[in-house]
Amino acid sequence: MTVRFFSSSRGLEASTDRLSSELARLSTPNELLAELEAEIRARTGATYAIACNSGTDALIALLIASGIGPGVLTPTENRASFAN
Question: Are 47 and 41 in contact (CB under 8 A)?
Fold first, then answer.
């Protein structure tokens, strides 16, 4: 019985064309980002959509859009703690 060793290059060879085209799209992030935001607006019916890098960025954008600025007190720990 012949056992073939795992090689990630075999899997990549099969999808090289697709990976190349996707990487080419990523080289123009502004167009890709605009396409993503447009798709979100279309699917949700929203007037605006902003794609964020992280949850923290999303929360900051929400606070700014809501007019909440410096001086607002928020808890630093927001997890529920349960006794075992």
Answer: yes
Buried b (16+ CB within 10 A) or exposed e, 43-68: eeeeeeeeeeeeeeeeeeeeeeeeee
d(CA 63, CA 57): 10
Q: Tell me the Cα Rg of the chain.
A: 22
Q: What is the pLDDT of residues 57-80, one digit of tens each?
A: 898 888 888 888 777 666 677 676
CA dihedral 63, 64, 68, 73 (to 10 degrees): 50
- Comparing 5-9, 21-25, 65-69, 77-81, the range with the smallest average pLDDT is 5-9
Distance CA 69, CA 74 (A): 12
Q: Are 49 and 37 in contact (CB under 8 A)?
A: yes
Distance between CA atoms of residues 39 and 50, nearest Å: 11
